[in-house]
Design a protein that fits this description.
Largest sheet: 4 strands, antiparallel
CATH superfamily of the largest domain: Band 7 domain
CATH class of the largest domain: Alpha Beta
């Protein structure tokens, strides 16, 4: 039996590599992390203001200044904060209706229905357009004090209240016709005065009455009334036109008759005055020479008669009628 040499080898032990960083390394890492956190904290103070916006900077909640468009910086919270306000966009509020999409809107009947000064009702839909003119007043006087209602509701309620006052001061006919633009202008001015008094930083551009009409329940009756009024106006216009034609003609004829009467009166008076003067002159001559005046008057009368006579009947001494035709004697027309 052969002898075998066995050599015993101990198994290799697994080596555990333990990383034991030094205190210096740990400190360095902590410093880097702290620096990164501080950097992120301070970088959080960077903010961008759009061209249409204004930035309001607050320090511990107190307004300290404004910043314009571009990249700006403020001390991070809780020390400072920034409120961005869009001051260029034209905002609007709708009264009596709400637009949900292009061409799609819903009417709010209770909001649109208003009482006129003559006891009628009118359905009025309006749009108010406005800007944020003073961001500081808008944020700190309006938004900070707005608890129950939002900004939009305050604008809508104010315009609606003043609109109702203006509608109540006019009749329904005036509102539907001549006073429509006047009411819009007055409402714009009064709303602006109210906002200025409250110092809420809103500038009203205009109030536009989009639709003014009778309520749907009385549209048919209202149309009948309008048709009757139009017929009345038509008849009145026709009567006025007839009056304008007849009255001037009658006045012209009356004036002509009066002128003719005045002319005739003057003619008669002048003729009578002339005859009276002539008679006075003849009387004067008669008083001076009666016989001569008689003969002269006789001859003048006979001459006047003969001037107008064409044929004469003469009774001679034998009492025989003879015709004496003077025309033939003087070469006149024998047929006269």
């Amino acid at each position: 039996m052969e002898d075998f040499d066995f050599e015993y080898h101990e198994p290799e032990k697994k080596r555990n590599i333990n990383f034991n960083p030094s205190k210096k390394t740990i400190k360095l890492v902590i410093i880097i992390v702290v620096i990164a956190i501080i950097a992120i904290y301070f970088l959080s103070g960077l903010y961008m203001i759009d061209p249409a916006e204004i930035g309001l900077v607050k320090t511990f909640g107190k307004f300290v200044g404004t910043t314009g468009p571009g990249l700006n910086y403020h001390i991070p919270a809780p020390f400072q904060s920034v409120v961005k306000v869009n001051v260029s966009t034209l905002r609007k509020e709708e009264i009596g209706f709400r637009t949900y999409d292009i061409g799609t809107y819903t009417t709010y009947e209770k909001e649109a229905l208003m009482l006129t000064g003559d006891g009628n009702f009118v359905s009025l839909e309006a749009v108010v357009q406005y800007y944020i003119s003073n961001p500081e007043d808008y944020i700190f006087n309006l938004l900070s004090n707005t608890n129950i209602y939002g900004t939009d509701d305050i604008v809508r309620f104010t315009v609606q209240s003043i609109l109702r006052e203006e509608v109540a001061a006019n009749t329904i006919d005036a509102i539907l016709t001549t006073q429509r633009d006047v009411i819009a202008a007055k409402t714009t001015a009064k709303v602006q005065d109210q906002f200025d008094m409250l110092k809420i930083g809103i500038q009203v551009k205009n109030v536009y009455l989009q639709e003014v009409s009778p309520p749907e329940q009385v549209v048919e009756a209202f149309d009948d009334v309008n048709n009757a009024k139009q017929d009345q106006e038509k008849l009145v216009n026709q009567a006025t036109q007839y009056k304008n034609d007849v009255v001037p003609n009658a006045q012209g004829q009356a004036a002509q008759i009066i002128k003719e009467a005045e002319g005739y009166s003057e003619q008669v008076v002048l003729k009578a005055t002339g005859e009276a003067n002539r008679f006075s002159a003849v009387l004067k001559e008669y008083l001076q020479a009666p016989e001569i005046t008689k003969k002269r008057m006789y001859l003048e009368t006979v001459n006047d008669i003969l001037d107008t006579a064409k044929k004469f009947v003469v009774l001679d001494s034998d009492e025989v009628f003879k015709f004496l035709d003077l025309n033939n004697m003087i070469g006149g027309d024998s047929n006269d």
